[in-house]
Recover the amino acids of this structure.
C-alpha cells in the first residue's frame, strides 16, 4: 500500500515516522494505544491536582465547623446553606470500571470519584460559610444524582450538600484557633479551654 493511500491524518505520520514496510493497521493501533495512554496520563494528573487542591482548602478552612449533628439552641442566627458539584469519570477510568463490572465486586474507581465529589462539596460549603462570616454549618445532608448523557453517553453525577448555617453567640474561654472543627473526612477536633 502506497503511503499516499493511508487515511488523511495517518499519511503524514506514516511519511515521517514509520519505515516503509510497516502495515497501516499497525500504525493505526499504535497511534490508538499512544492516544489512550496520553488521555489516561492527563486524567491521572488532573485527579492528583484536584486532590492536592482539596487538601490545601481543607487545611485552610479547618476553623469552620461542618457536622451532621443538629444545631445548638443558643445560635445567634441560622439559615439554609447549600453547595453542589458535578463530576464525571475520565474515559480511561470509565473503561476500567466497565471491565470491573464484568467480574463484579467493589468498583473503587467510582468510590474515589464520589469521595472527591463529597470533599469538594464540603469545601464549597466551608468557603461560602467563611465568606459570610458563618461559624458552623450543622445538620449537613447529601443528595447524589447520577446523569447519563444520551443512550451510550458518559456517566456524571451531581452531589448537593445542604445544612443549617449558624452564627454562634460570642463565647468566652474559647479561642478561634481552638474552634470545633470537622474535616471532610468526618474527623472531629474538640475545642480546648483557653
Amino acid at each position: 500500500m502506497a503511503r499516499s493511500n493511508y487515511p488523511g491524518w495517518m499519511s503524514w505520520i506514516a511519511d515521517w515516522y514509520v519505515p516503509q514496510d510497516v502495515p497501516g493497521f499497525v500504525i493505526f493501533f499504535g497511534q490508538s494505544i499512544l492516544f489512550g495512554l496520553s488521555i489516561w496520563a492527563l486524567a491521572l494528573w488532573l485527579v492528583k491536582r484536584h486532590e492536592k487542591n482539596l487538601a490545601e482548602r481543607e487545611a485552610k478552612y479547618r476553623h469552620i465547623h461542618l457536622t451532621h449533628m443538629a444545631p445548638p439552641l443558643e445560635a445567634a442566627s441560622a439559615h439554609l446553606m447549600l453547595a453542589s458539584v458535578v463530576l464525571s469519570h475520565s474515559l480511561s477510568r470509565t473503561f476500567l470500571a466497565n471491565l470491573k463490572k464484568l467480574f463484579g465486586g467493589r468498583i473503587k474507581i467510582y468510590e474515589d470519584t464520589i469521595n472527591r465529589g463529597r470533599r469538594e462539596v464540603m469545601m464549597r460549603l466551608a468557603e461560602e460559610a467563611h465568606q459570610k462570616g458563618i461559624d458552623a454549618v450543622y445538620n449537613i445532608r447529601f443528595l447524589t444524582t447520577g446523569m447519563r448523557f444520551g443512550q451510550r453517553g458518559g456517566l456524571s453525577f451531581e452531589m448537593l450538600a445542604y445544612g443549617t448555617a449558624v452564627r454562634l453567640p460570642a463565647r468566652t474561654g474559647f479561642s478561634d484557633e481552638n474552634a470545633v472543627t470537622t474535616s471532610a473526612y468526618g474527623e472531629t477536633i474538640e475545642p480546648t479551654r483557653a
Notes: Strands lie at 65-66, 77-88, 136-148, 155-167, 181-182, 188-189.
